[in-house]
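Quick one, tokens below. Sequence please?
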């Protein structure tokens, strides 16, 4: 379970059938950004095929990762578990993630770029979401990772990035032959416990989209993707209203 803004439990992403999900509300909109408050599935189901240029997102991770996630900086009080109390939000299982990713693959005209639990990403080598193929597994290596508290094994220090593409389109990007590896620090004292570095996400916007394109983030969190896409059009979905955009 996760917590709502009022501290009451809310259903997991897979806990409510699509037909019973309340319609999302427009939380913010201007000439370049539209942000919805509600379950992303309700918006995705009404979007036309190929209606956005690229999906850049950071979905929840597995239950095991959520339970064990710790931080060595910021509001989590060094070494404490970070996805508890007011910071808690629902994990996602492979089936639910695959369903959302398949919808992302349908509405994008090209790429789906997502930081994901590596347990999830590696399954996509043999069984990718419908309509997508996994072209590369990238890596974000952290310059300030959480040490292994037990001291009996190496710490994690990295997160996986899935670079998926529609199966019916030829892939192309603006990075030529550069590797899919990014280096950078975690976000200290952010409004979201798992926010990704703005510079890294902005690099993805530059590499996988062009000026005038529309970027979609169905798991918008604190709005890093929307801010990174400031010279594009963007659309985001998030289930909480209590977090400020970056």
């Amino acid at each position: 379970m996760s917590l709502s803004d009022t501290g009451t439990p809310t259903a997991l992403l897979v806990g409510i059938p699509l037909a019973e999900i309340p319609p999302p509300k427009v939380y913010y909109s201007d000439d370049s950004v539209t942000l919805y408050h509600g379950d992303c599935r309700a918006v995705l189901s009404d979007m036309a095929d190929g209606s956005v240029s690229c999906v850049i997102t950071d979905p929840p991770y597995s239950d095991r990762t959520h339970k064990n996630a710790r931080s060595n900086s910021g509001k989590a009080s060094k070494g404490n578990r970070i996805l508890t109390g007011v910071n808690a939000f629902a994990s996602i299982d492979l089936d639910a993630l695959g369903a959302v990713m398949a919808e992302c693959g349908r509405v994008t005209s090209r790429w789906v770029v997502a930081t994901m639990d590596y347990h999830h990403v590696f399954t996509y080598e043999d069984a990718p979401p419908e309509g997508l193929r996994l072209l590369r597994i990238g890596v974000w290596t952290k310059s300030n990772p959480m040490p292994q508290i037990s001291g009996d094994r190496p710490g994690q220090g990295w997160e996986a990035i899935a670079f998926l593409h529609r199966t019916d389109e030829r892939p192309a990007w603006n990075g030529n032959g550069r590797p899919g590896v990014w280096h950078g620090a975690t976000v200290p004292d952010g409004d979201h416990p798992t926010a990704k570095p703005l510079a890294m996400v902005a690099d993805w916007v530059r590499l996988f989209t062009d000026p005038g394109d529309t970027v979609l983030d169905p798991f918008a969190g604190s709005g890093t993707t929307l801010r990174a896409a400031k010279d594009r059009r963007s659309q985001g979905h998030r289930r909480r209203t209590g977090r400020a955009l970056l």
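Helices lie at 40-44, 63-68, 94-107, 118-123, 198-208, 224-228. The chain is about 20% helix and 25% strand.
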